[in-house]
């Protein structure tokens, strides 16, 4: 069957409310051409890691995907540049559940190693690093390559209000499906390319370019509030308000904490004073968070 016949079938199905057509992802040559008078395009770097587990102090990276791409300050995407995808032998058997999820086996990684010099060169040229779960990827990336600590990061999972735009879930494959395409998931570069494709799209309710929304969020500072010495009986109240428990660490208190926007900071401090400490003179510790610290274990 010819391509034009297939396209006719797709158009017919798309025109019916009873069908939804998914297209296989195809890497574009270019999303947009720069307009006359545009600034020099910036380089974004989408990253995805596959690991033997979730603990940065105990688990190892088994695959790294890096895909650089050009973008403008207003969120337009231009070219997707040459990617880097490499497996690495962790020096131990890969857990069965990781093999089931990723398809990466001990035989596949045997004898492979990530080129650290190439990684550092790609990171050096990037204005921003993006992951679709930066809380996970950033901690492993910084532990292996300290150059990542010097870069602004954003998260295509957290920094775009997917649920507010009408999406019921935020997994990469689900979002791709909702935007009408599918791809081979849970391999590093494939996930990166799918993430970039999502950033190129306009959000369904606001109509805003996803990349612009992500950049706007990354540029804003937030504040982390530490509810140090909060009464034990306040734990359920704090949890219900979105506070999380911090186990402590170098320069970090062992207490409940929450991240809020600068606009919400005063209200949240007032809440702690009245509802938790019951002391209007209490002065909870706050810490300013920017894209250079956000999603890092250093924050």
Short description:
The protein has helices spanning about 5-15, 95-100, 105-110, 115-125, 135-145, 170-180, 190-200, 210-220, 235-240, 265-275; strands spanning about 25, 40-50, 60-70, 75-80, 85, 130, 155, 180, 220-225, 245, 255-260, 285-290. The chain is of the alpha/beta class. The chain folds into 2 domains: about 25-220, 2-Layer Sandwich (Nucleotidyltransferase, domain 5); about 220-290.
Structural write-up:
- The structure is a single chain.
- With 299 residues, this protein is of the alpha/beta class.
- The chain has 2 domains: 23-219, Ribonuclease H-like superfamily/Ribonuclease H (Nucleotidyltransferase, domain 5), CATH 3.30.420.10; 222-289.
- It contains 10 helices and 12 strands.
- Strands 2, 3, 4, 5, 6 and 7 form a 6-stranded mixed sheet that branches. A 4-stranded antiparallel sheet has the order 10-11-9-12.
- Helix 6 crosses helix 7.
- The longest helix has 13 residues, at 265-277.
- It is globular, with a radius of gyration of 22 Å.
- The mean pLDDT is 95.
Q: Can you lay out the helices and strands and say which pair or pack?
A:
Layout: H1 3-14, E1 23-24, E2 42-51, E3 61-71, E4 77-80, E5 84-87, H2 96-102, H3 106-109, H4 116-124, E6 128-131, H5 134-144, E7 153-155, H6 172-178, E8 181-182, H7 188-199, H8 210-219, E9 222-227, H9 235-240, E10 244-246, E11 255-261, H10 265-277, E12 285-289
Parallel strand pairs: 1-8, 2-6, 6-7
Antiparallel strand pairs: 2-3, 3-4, 3-5, 9-11, 9-12, 10-11
